[in-house]
Fold these 2 entries.
Entry 1:
Amino acid sequence: MDSPTVIFEDYQVEAPAEAGETILEVANRAGVGIATYCGGQGTCQQCQVVVTSGTVQPKDEAHWQQWPTATGEGIKVLACQSVISEDITVKVPIGSRAEDFIIHEMEPLKPKLVDLSRFEPLSPLAQQFVLDLPKPTLEDTLTDMERLRRELLNDEAELEPLTIDLPVLRELPQALRENDFQVAIAVTDTGLARKIAAIRPPTAAQRSIGLAIDVGTSTVAVELVDLDNGQVVGRAIRRNGQIAYGEDVISRIVWTQKGPEQLQNMHQAIIDTLNEIFRYLYDEHNAAPDEVIAASVAGNATMINFLLRIDASPIRRTPHTPPATEMPVVTAEQLGLNIHPQAAVCVCHPAVSGFVGGDITAGVVATGMHEAEELALLVDVGTNGEIVAGNKDWLMCASCSAGPAFEGVGVEAAMPATAGAVTNFHYSRDRDAVDYETIAGQRPRGIAGSGLVEMIASLVEAEVIDRTGNMNADFPSDRLRRSDGELGFTLFEADETAIGEPIVIYQHDIENLLRSKAAVLAAINVLLGKLDLAATDVEHVYLAGAFGAGLNVDRAVAIGLLPDVPRERIEVVGDSALAGAYLTLMSRQAREQAQETVSAMTYLDLSSDTDFMDEFIASNFIPHTDLSRFPSVDM
Amino acid sequence: MALTAMDIYKQLPKTNCGDCGIPTCLAFAMKLAQGQASLDECPHVTEEATAALEGSSAPPMKTVTIGTGDNALQIGGQTVLFRHEETFHNPCGIAIQVNTSLSEEETRERITTACKTEFDRVGMMFDLDLIALNDDDGSLPQAAQLATEVSTLPLVLMSDDPGSMHGALEACGDGRPLIYAAGADNFDEMAALAKEFDCPLVIRGQNLDELYELSEKAGEAGLEDLVLDSGARELNAVLQNQTIVERAAINEKVKPMGFPTIGFTIGNNEVEKIISASELIAKYAGIVVTDLLTRNALLTMVTARLNIYTDPQKPIQVESGVYEIGEPDETSPVLITTNFSLTYYTVEADTSAGNIDAWVVVVDTEGTSVLTAWAAEDFTAETIAKTIEECGIEEKVANKIAVLPGGVAVLSGELEEASGWNIVVGPRESAGIPTFFKTEYEERIAQF
Amino acid sequence: MPLTIPKERWTAEVQTATIGATEEEGGTRTSTITIGGEQTLPFLHFEGETPNRPVIAMEVLDETPTGWPEPLARHYEDVWDDPAAWAQKAVEQFGADLICLRLVSANPDGSNASADQCAETIQSVLEAVGVPLIIWGCDNDEKDNEIMPFCSQAGSGERCVLGSATEDNYKTICASALADGHLIINQSPLDINIQKQVNILVTDMGMDLGDIIMYQVTGSLGYGVEYAYSILERTRLAALDGDKMLQMPMLSIVGSEAWRVKEAWQPEEDAPEWGPLEKRGIIWEVATATLFLHAATDILVMRHPEAVAYVRDHIDEMMSGQPV
């Protein structure tokens, strides 16, 4: 019998399945994101899908009893509990879609963040040298290794100390002789030592490529970089495949605590995600895995631990200390990454603590705030919000659990900043109409982070919601409707959207978003408060993370996501972690700075800080209960 | 003015060497600013820095010990004027006054009663701290002799007569009683006794100025363990003096004021004295001396002290156990949540708002919310199962079905196994409770 | 002078609020009450003025209370079926500065009295006494929103205080107060920030800062004082430091809270370690009131006449003190 096929009708995806697989497993493989936060145990009930044709079998009778249920369109089941035995068609309703896992090209990083001139002369993580070695003779009896050393160090004395690992040494005699002692040698700079990483025929070595990688909790971004000149050949992002095991780091840690197999799954999910992005980049930019001789990775402590398949559970427990902050340099082969097997995979940015990871220290290096006189603030709004304040004399950081609301997770109407996402939003009370812009000018599919900020500001202004975020039940518009007892405000009617359903913001969505912004603002205020500083003392605010360049900073202040400082001081910098990874890929100086930055960083633990809870509640208001701190905001 | 962390940081080496045991100089500076570290923990600090920072790191109020052994009482050591900034330390001592003119039998009974008085509150026992022997007939030495035999509590010896005091101190041996008091008239004698017997000494002024002068003099005489009495015997003056002494000590670091205080319950009857005691407990007294010995009065004073000396920064918690919302019966649903009061009261409010009669099983998570507790492994299948077992909910309902917060849906499988209950995953947000019960609950439990 | 008196330089003072309107002011009250205006923490005469003394409101329920312990019940048995007579007794015999009328009968889970019935009660109490009135709903949001416009109207022009507005339910009561010229009580669950949120929300609706009184669900000795004391103190500190949105006078409900706890009502045979019942509840109420007074409460809502007398004497004593 042919293997059955699953058609995900609203994604126009047709995926082959093995008999015995669940819908969830097929969906994950096919890049159809179905929401789950129990990791497929059948407990969270999030992954409800509708089978519109064909039938499925129960995975576990116990969980099957309440499902399936009939709906107008078909049979509603839990994707994780439904085993495929024949061809089926599946509809993933809004509310069950995680996000689409399709790979996207991404916008270039801000030039200021990736300015290599700060770090000249360049010294990439791996360098390639094309050598024409004198062949051994009775007079010149040096060993192969010494022969290599002599030639390399003759040109590049600073490569000392130069070492070699066993797998490369094993290849060495053959490689030299096969190529008549004309070889291209890749040398990795791993801190104290240099290592011979790859020996290749010179003809194959047209390019030496490196990868800058940001492993985010929600999304993974990769840049393909020409190591000779630092030029970025291509860049792409994708959802982190680990989302199937939980939306935030804690859920994922909990999943891995179930056993070594689960940790392996988690590890494999990020390796698979990376390899898929690599494959895409290779295809798009005509590159080969063997050309890639180094990778610099930035990520939060949990992501890095999972990447290296290290038990991350200590991060979950008080005092939230990760197993290690500095990670060993490993080879691609050890991880199963589809690049040159001996390429160094280096976590150049160590973590500060369990919840302030290398992604943040990468951001510090990229913004250069650690070298500046003026006081700067780096605010990275992701699933975790991380804050760094400081200047050349001191650096202090903290993290808060912001939740993924602004990243488009947990808010039904929200989505990542991809085609069809609403980025600008204004509701006019007088006209009862919405003015908006979407990415690529398509009909709205959902609201991006920047659109959510404008939406909140606009709804407060129009008095659809009050300053605590409560919807005004008496608001005179048909857009305000009650569904299942909860108030919702229809932003776009079904006939205006690309998804054939209305886009509605519910009361609890507003609460989620407010909590997110409150956590970020509270973290900022508490951190500054510890040093008796006011927000107005800050000369630069770098906003990194979920928000696109289109974010209206004025609105971000108006809702109290950011403190009230002169707007020209606020700069949206995008993926500063990726920028940091790029810089450390290209420069030893940047790598050294990354180390120094971490040792100079003071970590403030907000989870045990009583001021934080207070500030959090004060910030759970638009913009803040202390209006005197928002003099420029008039609502 | 206290130095800020940044002021202190500027004086430190800024090498982040970690030799002080703290990772960075800034973190060390913050600890110094909060009085949680001392400058000598940094091996690299310069002399200039030490000079510049000295004083800002010394504790503003002395901690004084009265008595010895297990029942010794520590008072003072406050670092803030307002308890929300940091908790008040060393709960004030309650001293029961016993006049020396009482008969031996009465004295014995009064002391025994005071020593045995204790109250059970929030599962802990709270008792009284001192016996204050008031020399109203010159027989303090004999009373002290008796008290050392009868009392398990340390003593306060109250007499203006140095001769009487000397005899009493001899009777006390090395019991380290508190000497009350050195005033302008008997200062030299009393100070000498305090030195001779190595006992803490109360300095009593007729007013604040005299108090300051005498305390300064005591300091010059090398006495370190002092307790202050501003002499005020009228409730508003007591309040003002207590506030001034405490502010001078903590805000201004005025050294002669940097000691705990002693106060007396004033009034014509029990209730008036309770008012006076409440004021003293709230307003910084290190020791409250009272002649009240009724259970009513002592219960109230001990409770007031417990309240004022509870750390208000600790998250407000509800007690773990079963709570009723509306009028639940054996068919009513069982909700599970944590003991952070905001979490519990939100659940309570949302459930009542939906007119749902329900049982709520509250798990002790040390006052953290559902997700925080889960993240920190305080809200796990094991802790929930244990609470379910111990709280007695099983006897209250017919079916073992409980609703778990949706945010921790992941625990449901383990919890079913650990508790033997059927678990229904509820909404993620408490606000969803009414809808959940209206639309989903019945359908979900039909399976069991 | 050897000791320099350490004085704080407060930058602001507490908002003043006047409750009740006399005939000249469009009402029928024979007296009004002004609270607030403090320039320092409670009773620190060496540092600043305390122009208005804290006041005591006595509680009147609009239906016969049940389960009151004898030492309390004996003072009210003769009047507790009639709110007007009860209010009269509280004012004339016990010296209440104002009356806090709690409309418990409106609760849908209880007698479910109608808005008209509540309004009638209010009128009868207003007629029976000349002191100002606090009108408190039944603590059921939906029902309060239903009755409050009528209750408010019943006292129109009298500058009553309407209680209470919360973060999630403030619009109806605030609109009523605005329409009929009353003050409003803003309530928060022991949270200074939520208190502030309610204050901002009602001022956004047009409420005057001088027409707001704050109530932070303060609880009683042993049950809430540990948090409430500091919440009150912090709020007052913020007020004196210039935070406009926390400068309103504060109210504490002492009577019903103190008498609710078992220390106040459990008979001696069930709790011998607590001593005789006769005075226990009074002492509990007095100690609670004293602590809240020193934490900066401006209106104490009390129950037992003896407790009221003691606390009033204490306020007298604190107010008559001289700067040291």
Entry 2:
Amino acid sequence: MSQIISVRNLSKSYGSHQVLSNVSFDFEGGQIIGLLGPNGSGKTSLIKILTGLINDYSGEVLIDGNKPGKVSKSLVAFLPEKTYLASWMTSDDAVNYIADFYDDFDKAKAMHMMDVFQLPHKQKVKTMSKGMQEKLQLLLVMCRNAKLYILDEPMGGVDPAARDFILETILKNRPEGSTILMSTHLIQDVEEIFDSILMIGRGSLLMKDTVANITKSGKTINDIFKEVFSVDWNF
Amino acid sequence: MTGTSKPKGKFLMLLKNDFLASARVISLFYIALVLLIGIFGICVAVSGADGVSMELASKFTTARNVSIILSILVSFLLIFVTFFFVVYDFFKSLFSPQGYLSFTLPVSSNQLLGSKVIVYGGWMLLSYAAFMFTSVFLMNYTADQVIGMDKISLAETFLAMLGDFPSTTQIVAYLVYMIMMFFVIFLSFVSIVYFSITVSHVRLLQKHSIVASIVIFFATAIAFLVISFKMTEIVNFVMVFNEDKTLSFGLLRPDEYLTGNALGMEVTPGFAFLILDIGMFFLTSYIMHKKVNLK
């Protein structure tokens, strides 16, 4: 299988502050990859680079063989941590907007999922609860038949019931052969779904391996994460 | 799985969505304006109709006068609302969390910026045209009522003041010149606004983005004026309205075309602004692509 993500000697700094330092890794397609690291580890910067939101970096980044740009953006479905929809949009407006730009968007499925998620078609984003906004954004992302899904903390700040719902929606609607790169702090809740792990800290790549290899010793991903990063909290 | 990208199609989608986003508010003012002009028309028709009582005619005349004032007010307000949207939508859709959606669309930053320049530049021109049309139309009607002149005689009086000059060709050339100059000025205004907002969202200035964008706006506007002035000093291309009703063009000094009854219109500043606008477009697009930091 070809490399869906290929990163070579990636470095990024903001002024004198280096957030990513000479990071290199590859991933084959068809996996669920956990992007793990504490706050400030460089996860968000890496995601912004992969999604084409940051373009001044050194090194090489390829998404399915394409540099981040128009083509790669048509292959990637991105779920940011923030609410990115315009407040005046209704659910229908949001669906039509995404359908206008992405050829792989399944509008019929989106309309059906809106009913399943109990999202009123004509309700404006600004009058929706945070939970409804998150459902709508998740729906917009998972109704695409993308090659790569990049999900930034999809379960951050939601209750356990909502976490199960989000996870189920992601797994149920993921097209066969697609890849998911998911950043999360809630390792315990999701570690069983990961095929591979990418752990970054202090701007460097600390671990990149399959879950099968990592857990051979009997330790969980959560245990490994604590071992790697507990040093940051021991003074 | 598909990843097919149709650049032209996507640009049209950008235009469509930028238009829809702006039209939802701006169009309300156009609807209000059309309604007010409609009310004005009805009032004129009823107050002047045969068999209408003096009392009713008086009420409709009052309503007509109110509709004239409101129409001019709404058309004036329209310019400010459009200006507000030029700034607000650009900031909101690109540099607030909505930027996470806009900048991950399968389009280039040239297309993102180009769509906004076309849609909002278009709205600005249209709003100004609506204001001019409303003002001229209603003021002409008022003048007609107050001083008893109709449109034709008013125009004839104006032309008579200028003697036998200018000719139809000169009037057409003057109108084309004015329209082009307005177009370039609006384009420059929009491009300077977009440049200022974009630069104020690079990491270095982000903490003080409002102050930064205001300072950059005025600094850039002054730079535009200075550059166009200098270019005009070097190459002063002029359209001259000659006394013999002809038009001529040439590289002239002011003392060469501001003599006698000849009138010269400088073309160089318009070209200078246009060249600066094009440069500003690509510079803004580059900064947007390479340097902007989304929070």
